[in-house]
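Our consortium's second objective concerns turning raw sequence data into structural hypotheses that experimental partners can test. To show how far this objective has progressed, the report includes one record in full. It was chosen at random from the queue rather than selected for favorable results. The single chain below, 282 residues long, was entered without modification.
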Amino acid sequence: MIYLKCYFLSFGLLFILALLPSTRTFPTTFHEDNTKKIYHVDLHHMSQSFSSHLLFDHLDGIFSFLSRHISHHFQDLVQVTIQPSSASSDSVLDIDLLKGQLQGAVGSFIEDSLSAIWNKHAAVLDKSVLSNYIERVTLDVCSTTTTTSTYLLNNTCIESHTQHILYLVENYIQDHIKHIIKLIVMEDLPPLFKTTQSHVNGILAHFNQHLVQHNQQFYSANNNSNNTLAALNPIIIHQDLDNSIELIQYLEMAISLYHQSSRSTSHQSKLKQFILLSKIEE
């Protein structure tokens, strides 16, 4: 009986407490989290950060891609044969191996040379130029509050025009890259081709001498007086620099495809990140 009284007493207390108004409140809305915050952005800081991203994460990749394509183009011009085609099968020279070694040497030489050539022409796309262009196109669409040394812009304005800003910046870069490609093909590749051809011919002259000596020893050992075959076995290289217009079109198409594949949404997300990082604390 005592147990039942205690049980009903406890149940009664719990019932009374349940009827009392709760002093604990639960959040029903998240206005502070969902409300878009408005702040000022240091335009110079934002443009500097975004231009660095474009240089190191985008333009460096374009240069490497372009260098590989030009290098492969030069390597494809290397064709080594032995004359006449009826050359002795006893030749110790592996032509395919020699061709592969020459192509590798040509590829390395071209890529090393293109680094200086690219730097000469790419000054129009350095960090300072890109940063100034980003600032200019941003100021065209967003009003600014100017201080003594800083352009302050509303973050919501920049964010709402992100796609337009990126469109202008990407077109600016592409136009300059097309111009750089034309300069490289028309002005830099012809003398580079001649230098490469001279180096390759020097290497081939060494192998020719080795081959002639070997054939002479071979015929002497076999008491064969027909040494004229040895002199008729030079190694030759067939090279012909393709039509410049065709090469320019090929490189432009390759770069355009690379640009489209790498653009996606990475630039947009990066720009929004740099907008936030350039926030002015007030």
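The partners drew two points from this record. The beta strands are 40-42, 80-82, 144-146, 151-154, 235-237. Residues 1-35, 227-234 have pLDDT under 50 and may be disordered. Both points have been shared with the crystallography group to help prioritize constructs.
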